[in-house]
Amino acid sequence: MSTTTEPDREDDAETRRERLTRLFGGGWIFLLLIFLIALFAALRPMQFGSAYNLSQLTINAAILLVLSIGQTFVIVTAGIDLAIGAVLVFASVLSAKTMLWLAGAAGTTFGTTDASWLVIGIGSLVAVAAGMAWGAVSGWLVAVARIPALIVTLGTFGMALGLAQIITGGVDVRAMPERLVAHVGAGSIAGVPTLVVIAVVVTAGAAVVLHLTRFGTRVFAIGSNAEAARRAGINVRAYMIAIYMISGALAGVGAVMSNARFSTTTIGGHGMDNLTTISAVVLGGTSLFGGVGSIAGTVIGVFIPIILLNGFVILGIPPFWQTVAMGAVLIVAVWVDQLKRRAQERG
Amino acid sequence: MDAPLLEARGIHKRFGHAHVLRGVDFAVHAGEICALVGDNGAGKSTLVKILSGADAPSAGTISVEGRPVVFASPAEAQRHGIATVYQDLALAPDLSPADNIFLGNELMRRGLAGRLGFLDRAEMRRRATEQFARLGVRLRSNKAPVSSLSGGQRQSVAISRAAMWADKVIFMDEPTAALGVVQTARVIELIRQVKQAGISVVLISHNMPQVIEVADRIVVLRLGENVAEFHAGDVDVDRLIAAMTAGTPTARSPS
Ligand SMILES: Nc1ncnc2c1ncn2[C@@H]1O[C@H](COP(=O)(O)OP(=O)(O)O)[C@@H](O)[C@H]1O
Ligand SMILES: [Mg+2]
Q1: What is the ipTM of this complex?
Q2: Of A238, A288, B31, B103, which is most buried by a Cβ count within 10 Å?
Q3: Closest to B206 (Cβ–Cβ): which among A1, A223, A228?
């Protein structure tokens, strides 16, 4: 028998170190966002604060936000989804091809088709279903075949992107339904860009599911200690598969948004989506070790690089500096997360 | 006299060629703390796994209040009122004590919200607080994640969780092995509280003075067989150690 002596702290209140790390771990990134907004608004109020600029900012954030929400679910379970951008490309290609075919337009058509809302609806469902299918593949390989998520999603990344290129011969589908482009891509609902409305709805829904439901609590539990969850009678495998399917489905939603916004598929444009979403999620305080995270944090994490880039452009700073700044901020974010963990585990 | 809460007769367990349990008899009666002691490798953990549904015996019978049962899983043992506090603390460290207590048995809101999967966090927290109060567990914080609690408090949360979902027997396999002196004393106090709450405890420990102090009855295993059984008042450390290291099998009860 070993009796390790550790200090008895049963009655201690929160220590000062814990309070500091909680503050820095949880809130500092939000303060950084506020600081950036205040800084750019003060330096260039006319340009940065203009309605046009603000609406551009949110439109730029919309697709990335939807993808990052899916990534948040995955990372909370201590997983990772590198396939996100490739699944988006695959889903957008399949969706665009389906809509072209249903509208009876030739595959080489440029510009827009006059496909009906029904066709657009079917095309959107195809995109979401394709994303879910890839998620099911990744999830099964991670949860049942027990292959590390990093490898699995690197594999599905290659497969989804490769298949998208095979389907299209590597050439983007450049004809989208007119209604999709006009009303979803460029349109607005009650003055708010439709893309932003979609992102807000997805984000609010995800926040409710993750933070208020049994499903969400169990997602946190699985990320925190999968073995404990299993012993508590939770079907961890089914949950893991569902999580990757959610991420895939949201990549499908992102595909529809991307098709609508750019009026073309963007096969070459999503190679960095996985890293961009991962850094947004981690910036937002979600731990790569799993078990800790929030949707609100991810929203902040998505906006920081976008506002940084926007501010640099407005100030005339070469935008490459944004890349440098973001790299540094990301490393600091993970460092703070680790400090926080260590301080807690000392307890 | 009533049938024991939980009774095992003639339990054998083989792992391939290793014959780890060789016809062990074991009973847990209502309202007692029963210690299970023995040298390393005596088969204590294996027996506990079998009695709590985590493993199946190669031969032998188990009955709950006199009725034969077969536990296919820990969940099934739990339905019979039997739970285990695992040696390695099966808690989710990032969740609050209340969320841990209700993990897998979450309370849902009433009506439509509940059917949509919404949790009743307030009620979960309220009942967890009630449970901690019942067992005399004082936590530094009820909302902070379990990982921020001390080792003893974490163990207390794990025991409170088991006591929430088992109303007959709780097995504790070396619950104080990793704890310091003060925290060990608190966990022992908690074990007494669990007994007070009407739940029997089976305690595995290598700390002989502790065992003699807290247990009502002590069962000694050696090399997979029963070698002695004592009432805690009638035994000292030397006799316990002698039985653990050199005891010979006791007469098997007729079955
Ligand atoms: N899964 C297993 N496979 C093979 N042998 C095992 C297994 N589990 C336990 N044993 C063996 O059974 C014996 C009893 O182990 P255990 O029940 O852990 O003893 P105790 O808890 O009393 O120290 C040991 O010799 C151990 O090596
Ligand atoms: Mg053991």
Answers
A1: 0.85
A2: B103
A3: A1
